[in-house]
C-alpha cells in the first residue's frame, strides 16, 4: 500500500551500534523537484572534549579508505578531488550540556545519511570523539581513564546515584563512563516523521498523496541505561 504513495523510494538506514529509534526512512521525489527529506532525527552523544562553537553545521565529504594492508576499511573525511567515491555529508550539532570533567553532551542531526557520518564528523571535524567509539576515537581511548567518583567536586554534597541491578547481580548500567571500556554513547533520542496511517487512508481514497502535507509524529526514546548512568554521574 505504501508503495503507491507519490513517486517514493524506500530504503533502510540504521546505525547498528547506536541505540534509540530505528525505522524505515522514506525519501520523496517529485517531478522536477529536488529530493525532499521528510524524516528528521536527533541523536544524543557524549563526546570527549568540547567543540569550539556551541552549535553549527558540519559539511565535510566522507569516503571509504582501506587500512591494515587491506584487512579492513574505515570511513574518513576526504577531499572531493582526491577520492571519486567521496559522498557529500552534512550534520547539524548543538551542545546540550558541557561538563567540567572533560566531556560534553551533544545533540546531532544528520542531514544526509552516510555510513558512520556522526561518528566521523564528531571525531575528525569537531575533534571530540564519541565516548565508546573505539573505531574512530581509538587514540583517545588508548589513554582512557575511567571516570572515578573522586573526580567530582569535593564541594558537591550530592552522592553518585547507585547502580541498578537485576537478580543474580546483573548490571543494568554496565558501559557508562565509570567502566574501563565504556559502550558507545550515541543514541537516537528524537524522530519526527509523517503520520503513515493518515497516508494510507488518503491513498485508499485517491491515487496520490503528498507526504509533505501530512501531520507529523514525534517519537522520543529515553536514554539507554549506560548513557543515563553517565548523565546522572556527570550531573551529580
TrEMBL record:
The keyword Lipoprotein does not apply. One of its GO terms (biological process) is pseudouridine synthesis. One of its GO terms (molecular function) is pseudouridine synthase activity. The keyword Isomerase applies. One of its GO terms (cellular component) is mitochondrion. Residues 35-123 form the Pseudouridine synthase RsuA/RluA-like domain. Its main location: mitochondrion. Keywords: Isomerase, Mitochondrion. It comes from the Eukaryota. SUPFAM superfamilies: Pseudouridine synthase (SSF55120). It is found in: Mitochondrion. Belongs to the pseudouridine synthase RluA family. This is Pseudouridine synthase RsuA/RluA-like domain-containing protein. It comes from Citrus sinensis (Sweet orange).
Amino acid at each position: 500500500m505504501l508503495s503507491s504513495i507519490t513517486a517514493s523510494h524506500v530504503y533502510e538506514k540504521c546505525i547498528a551500534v547506536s541505540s534509540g529509534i530505528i525505522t524505515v526512512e522514506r525519501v520523496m521525489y517529485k517531478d522536477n523537484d529536488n529530493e525532499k527529506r521528510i524524516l528528521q532525527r536527533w541523536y544524543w552523544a557524549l563526546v570527549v572534549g568540547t567543540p569550539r562553537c556551541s552549535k553549527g553545521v558540519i559539511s565535510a565529504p566522507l569516503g571509504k579508505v582501506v587500512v591494515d594492508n587491506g584487512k579492513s576499511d574505515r570511513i574518513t573525511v576526504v577531499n572531493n578531488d582526491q577520492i571519486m567515491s567521496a559522498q557529500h555529508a552534512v550534520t547539524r550539532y548543538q551542545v546540550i550540556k558541557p561538563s567540567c570533567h572533560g566531556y560534553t553532551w551533544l545533540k546531532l542531526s544528520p542531514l544526509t545519511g552516510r555510513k558512520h557520518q556522526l561518528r566521523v564528523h564528531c571525531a575528525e571535524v569537531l575533534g571530540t570523539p564519541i565516548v565508546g567509539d573505539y573505531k574512530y576515537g581509538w587514540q583517545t581511548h588508548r589513554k582512557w581513564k575511567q571516570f572515578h567518583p573522586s573526580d567530582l567536586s569535593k564541594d558537591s554534597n550530592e552522592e553518585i546515584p547507585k547502580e541498578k541491578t537485576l537478580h543474580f547481580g546483573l548490571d543494568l548500567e554496565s558501559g557508562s563512563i565509570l567502566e574501563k571500556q565504556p559502550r558507545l554513547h550515541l543514541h537516537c533520542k528524537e524522530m519526527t516523521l509523517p503520520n503513515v496511517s493518515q497516508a494510507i487512508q488518503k491513498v485508499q481514497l485517491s491515487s496520490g498523496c503528498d507526504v509533505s502535507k501530512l501531520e507529523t509524529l514525534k517519537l522520543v526514546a529515553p536514554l539507554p541505561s549506560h548513557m543515563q548512568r553517565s548523565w546522572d554521574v556527570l550531573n551529580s
